[in-house]
Specification:
The structure is a single chain. The protein is mainly alpha-helical and 255 residues long. Helix content is 79%, strand content 0%.
């Protein structure tokens, strides 16, 4: 229970910084809205392709915008941790008897909470544009997969912050999340891709997360899409969690 209180306290501190330093959070909110609005207008015509199965492009873009927003919400946790490392606050946390997992769980929980907010804003903007709200279970899947991606992005960014110990590493945190989304099925179904992007998307685990989320949004949850999405999420979570924990152990040895 002590470690849980520590994690919740750290999560609350990260969320409090949203009010104190809005410049940290606003980009992660503006980016998915920009993507939603810009792509829905620019690429609306390609929704006539049979690969879209009659889905409107705005509705097609909702899961991608939610996932991107969640990814940047996760990156914000890494940026906040980097500031704590620069300012010496994290050094004091290391000196406490708190579990190392608890120290990572706090920023991760904050990232999940922020992802829930950004996904809600994306949905509200899409509904204003005429997108129907899916069923309760379908909506929970979209929210859940976005939250998982926020966790993965958070652990990745935390791992970078623990190694770089500087907020100057934030571009590396962001670019990997950005590239991972846009080399997947961000703009079209996999069947409509061609060339090198088609091959990259086939092996990109974010493709399966987006396909699971998009299937729930457009057609309803189906196990043939949700299963691979959950498997890809689990693999990414384990890899990034290992990356973050090793970074923390490395910092313990070489403060």
């Amino acid at each position: 229970m002590g470690n849980l209180r520590i994690s919740l306290g750290l999560a609350g501190r990260h969320l409090l910084l949203v009010r104190r330093i809005p410049s940290v959070f606003i980009p992660s909110l503006v980016m998915p809205l920009f993507i939603l609005i810009a792509t829905a207008g620019a690429f609306r015509g390609i929704a006539q392709l049979p690969d879209f199965k009659g889905a409107g492009y705005l509705a097609f873009t909702v899961p991608m915008a939610a996932t991107m927003g969640a990814g940047f919400a996760g990156v914000n946790s890494g940026m906040t941790l980097a500031r704590d490392l620069e300012g010496g606050f994290f050094d004091r946390l290391q000196a406490t008897p708190a579990s190392r997992i608890a120290l990572l769980a706090g920023p991760l929980l904050a990232a999940v909470a922020r992802s829930l907010f950004t996904t809600t804003v994306v949905y509200l903007a899409a509904m204003i544009g005429g997108v129907r709200f899916p069923g309760v279970v379908d909506t929970l899947v979209v929210y859940g997969l976005a939250a998982v991606f926020a966790s993965v992005a958070s652990l990745w960014a935390i791992g970078i912050a623990l190694r770089a110990k500087s907020v100057q590493a934030s571009p590396l945190m962001q670019v990997v999340v950005f590239v991972s989304v846009f080399t997947s099925v961000a703009y079209t179904p996999r069947s409509a891709l061609s060339g090198w992007l088609s091959h990259v998307a086939d092996w990109n685990p974010v493709t399966f997360i987006l396909e699971g989320s998009r299937d729930a949004q457009l057609f309803g949850v189906s196990w043939d899409k949700l299963g691979p999405a959950l498997l890809a999420s689990a693999i990414l979570f384990l890899l990034t969690a290992t990356f973050a924990l090793r970074g923390l152990r490395r910092l313990d040895r070489n403060p």
